[in-house]
Each structure stands twice: as C-alpha cells, then as structure tokens.
Amino acid sequence: MIPMVDLKGQYLAIKEEIDRGILEALEKTQFILGPNVTAFEEEAAAFLGTRYAVGVASGTDALHLALAAAGITAGDEVITTPFTFIATAEAIRYVGATPVFVDIDPRTFNIDPALIEAAITPKTRAVLPVHLFGQPADMAAIEAICSKHGLLLIEDCAQSFGAEAAGRMTGSRGALGAFSFFPSKNLGCYGDGGLVTTSSPELAEQVKVLRNHGSKVRYHHSVIGFNSRLDEVQAVILRVKLKRLREYNEGRRRVAHLYSSLLAGSGVVTPFEDGKGVHVYHQYTLLSDHREAIMKALGEAGIASAVYYPIPLHRQDVFAADYAGVTLPVAEEVAARCMSLPIFPEMTAAQVEEVVAVIKRVVAA
Ligand SMILES: *Cc1c(COP(=O)(O)O)cnc(C)c1O
C-alpha cells in the first residue's frame, strides 16, 4: 500500500521530541497564546524572511484575517485563480468582496500574469495568487502589475511553506501571506492551524487584534474580531517540524525529480519548473488523457491517487450562477486532465518505481 502522504511514518521518526514537547505544554497549562506560539511565530518569521508572523486557527482564517486586516470589504474585487481549493474564494466572500477569476498558465497551473490587467476594474483592490502544489506563482510579474495599478498583493501560501520565488520565500513578497497547517500540508500540524505573515507593523498588529476578539488590552475591544488563535499544542508540533522542513522539502523534490525522470517520454505531462523559483512539491500533479484508467489501475495495485481539483471554482455550485457567462478554458482543461500521485519526504525510490510501473503499463496499453 502506498498512501498519498505517510503522516504516521513521519510522526514515528520525531515521536520522542513531539511527545516530550506536548507533555511539557500540558504541564505548563498556558494553553492560549502560550510560549510555544510566540516562539513558533518568531521561528517562522525568521525562516520566511518576514518581520512578523501571526499564528491563527486555520489557513482559511489566515486568508480571511489577512483580507480583513488589509481593509478589503464589501464592493471590492479581488483577482484570484479559479484553480485552487475553495477556501481562497470563500475568504474573499467572508469580507464581502467579490472574487474575479483569471485563467491559469497551462504549465504551472498558477494564475497567468498576462491575463491579470484585463480583469482590473475601478473596484479591484487586491490580487491574490495561490502558489499551487508548492509551485511559486510568477511573483515578479504579479508585483509589477500590482505596483503599476496600486493593488495589494496577498499570497495564498497554504501549499508552499519554504517554496521560493526569485530568491525569496513565498509569503514574504506580498503585503500579506496566508499559510495553512492542515495535517497533510507540506508543513502540517496535528489538527487545524494557520499563519499570517507581513512585514508591516500596522498589518501585523491588526491581524493580532482580529484573531483575539478585536482586543489589544484584555476586555477592551476596539473592533469586532474573531476567536482565531493558533493552539499551543499545535505550535509545539510545528516547531519540531519547522526545524526539519528544509530536509522534508528536499525529500519531496528528490521524489518529484525521480518521478519526472522515470515518466519522461511516457506520454503523461509531468510538472513544469521554470527555474526562477524553488517548487516544494506539496503535490506531484500530472496531466493525462487517461486519468481514469491510470487511477483505476493504481487503486487496484494498492496505490493512492487523487484529483486536485476536479471542478474549477467558477463552475462550483456555490458560484455557478454568479459566473455563468465566464469561460476559463485552461483551468477547465487542466481540471479535466489532472491527477496527483503519492508524494512525501520519506517515500522511497522503490515506491516511486512501483507507481511509475503501473502508469507506464496503462499508457502503453
Ligand atoms: C488548505 C488550503 C487552504 C485552507 O487551509 P485550511 O487550513 O484547511 O483552512 C487555503 N488555500 C489553499 C490553496 C489550500 O490548499
């Protein structure tokens, strides 16, 4: 059996340190905004090269609080990608704004910068790229558009902790970055968790106030806020894993490059690397006209696979009526042909070879 991710194997390798840290946190009983949250925030900011990092309750909340802190509100438009997890667009709607979907680059699966300017209107306030599957979006091009038009740049880094775009970590280039620590993310905790990054002291302060009931001083509330704090126990786990994240991401890249070299010439389209950044392969996603047959054969061989994502957001039931006239051909085609293979840092060469052998058998038939 080969799973999409091996969370159990990873836990067993770091069990002593995790268990000891959790027990210490239980003994200390500082469960809300305790010392591990503060330490993790400092360590994450240092790792990512941002001045501030603020722990929150989930990646969805990180996006929501980032947009709220930036003052995005009803009547505003936010340009984003249709090929992402629903949370990206949900967060835009939470603040009352409207997602404007711009089609993707067929090679990177990320928002196509060449199409952004045509989507800008007087209501546009921000551009929200997603670094999908750990592949950095084309930040240099997006930054140039944002500064030309006076738009905020907010990054969805839920799948890209440690990915680099032109020499800088994703989440350190926009006004704000939003990260998720959902367990299966490339930096994941053992429950829900998230992080907002920024180098603006004002925005950092605003996110801190919003995550804690709109309060800077206890029982004094300046705005309507939320209960959205990173949990102390999750922060313990994240500190242990952050120390190993470079090694984990290297492991993912090693697995991905082995997949790509073994699959070369087989007819499936393997992931693209533009050489401008560092892809951390949160997912290894390929394109094939034989997706269903490949997934069926993998399943019969005890190998997991998944489709991220089968329906672009403008075609989801929740948005279908609002975007009825919108056609985004690249996102639609990619959604119809994409599939993701198992990838995790501990995956062995023999496991990769086993997956590839099944795929080659199907595409050759
Ligand atoms: C996982 C994910 C989110 C949401 O994160 P949660 O922690 O699950 O709330 C947002 N955007 C993208 C692209 C994601 O993959």
UniProtKB/TrEMBL annotation:
Keyword flag ATP-binding: no
Q: Where are the transmembrane segments?
A: none
Q: Pfam families, from UniProt?
A: DegT_DnrJ_EryC1 (PF01041)
Going by the UniProt record, its keywords in alphabetical order are: Pyridoxal phosphate
Q: Residues of the signal sequence?
A: none
> Known InterPro entries for this protein?
DegT/StrS_aminotransferase, PyrdxlP-dep_Trfase, PyrdxlP-dep_Trfase_major, PyrdxlP-dep_Trfase_small
The family line of this record is: Belongs to the DegT/DnrJ/EryC1 family.
| Protein name as annotated | UDP-2-acetamido-2-deoxy-alpha-D-ribo-hexopyranos- 3-ulose 3-aminotransferase
The protein's organism comes out as Geotalea uraniireducens
Q: Which gene encodes it?
A: gnnB
